[in-house]
Amino acid sequence: MLVVAGLGLCGTRDISVGLLREAEDADEIFLETYTSVSPGLRVEDLVSVLGRGVKLVTRKDLEDESARTVLEVAARGKALLLTIGNPLIATTHSSIVVEAAKRGIKVRVLPAPSIIDGIIASTGLHVYKFGRVVSLVFPEDPSLKNYPYTPYSVLKDNVSRGLHTIFLLDIRADEGRYMLFREASELLLRLEERFQENVVDENTLVIGVARATAEDEKVFAGRISEAINADLGNAPHTLIVPGELHDSEIDFLHYKTGRPVEVFKSWNAKVNAKKKQSGTSPTWREP
């Protein structure tokens, strides 16, 4: 059997009773930390909570070698694979589940709080008002000549419908590189220079969330021209470009970040103008 279980967002805080029960009779427990970052997560603390040893697995183990070691244990007994956040947010883990099914191995998935849950908890944004989620990766070419158009086009489409856009920022743990909010903000401005479709300008409202729901979390809201100089501390960071904000979302962000209500209402007027220009209607409806 293969059990893929999420650890949640912050160290050992979000570990479920169900995960603890699965750990009791697992033949081996594996932990991967290259697809995400968990503030305060230390292997020794995890070992203490589980009462079991834990083996670290790398990108090479799970992707290049198709999780061979993990699945060999699962084929003859029970393997517990631990991930940060919700396990199936990362497509790597979905592939492992599929591969296990192909081999006739029984699979169980234990969910946990994901970064999406963390963003909602940290910002008060309404879940039914999010559009498509997209990733921002580090540029390989400083000129952005071959940079993917997808993040820019997704933002354009979401804003035209008044929907919030979550940008998941690049994590390259094996290289020790984690994209920060200010870097992502600068990258969005550069993508505007590259594609020039009037999606982003210096007054675009952005929300930055660092270490969502952790004791030292930071939440920023303001113009993207301000965001490029914002220091939110250590990763993980997430960038959100809001769509049309409901009054309750504005109130939450006002009290959370201290930014004046007028900042958010001014942004709403800009989003509404973009919606009229595109001739589209929002896909959400207030309950």
TrEMBL record:
Question: What is the protein's quaternary organization?
Answer: Homodimer.
Q: Which SUPFAM superfamilies match?
A: Tetrapyrrole methylase
List the pathway annotation.
Protein modification; peptidyl-diphthamide biosynthesis
Question: What is this protein for, i.e. what is its function?
Answer: S-adenosyl-L-methionine-dependent methyltransferase that catalyzes the trimethylation of the amino group of the modified target histidine residue in translation elongation factor 2 (EF-2), to form an intermediate called diphthine. The three successive methylation reactions represent the second step of diphthamide biosynthesis.
A molecular-function term among this protein's GO annotations: diphthine synthase activity
- Give the GO biological process terms: methylation; protein histidyl modification to diphthamide
Query: Which residues are in coiled coils?
Result: none
Protein name, UniProt field = Diphthine synthase
Enzyme Commission code(s) on record: 2.1.1.98
Concerning PANTHER family, the annotation shows:
DIPHTHINE METHYL ESTER SYNTHASE, DIPHTHINE SYNTHASE
CDD domains the UniProt entry points to: DHP5_DphB
**What HAMAP family is this protein classified in?**
Diphthine_synth
Family in the record = Belongs to the diphthine synthase family.
Signal peptide residues on this chain, from the entry's feature table: none
Q: Which UniProt keywords apply?
A: Methyltransferase, S-adenosyl-L-methionine, Transferase
Specify the superkingdom.
Answer: Archaea
Q: Which organism is it from?
A: Thermofilum pendens (strain DSM 2475 / Hrk 5)
Catalyzed reaction equations: 2-[(3S)-amino-3-carboxypropyl]-L-histidyl-[translation elongation factor 2] + 3 S-adenosyl-L-methionine = diphthine-[translation elongation factor 2] + 3 S-adenosyl-L-homocysteine + 3 H(+)
Instruction: Name the residues that bind S-adenosyl-L-methionine.
Output: L9, I89, S114, I115, L169, A212, H237
The Tetrapyrrole methylase domain extends over 1-227
Q: Which InterPro entries match?
A: 4pyrrol_Mease (IPR000878), 4pyrrol_Methylase_sf (IPR035996), 4pyrrole_Mease_sub1 (IPR014777), 4pyrrole_Mease_sub2 (IPR014776), Dphthn_synthase (IPR004551)
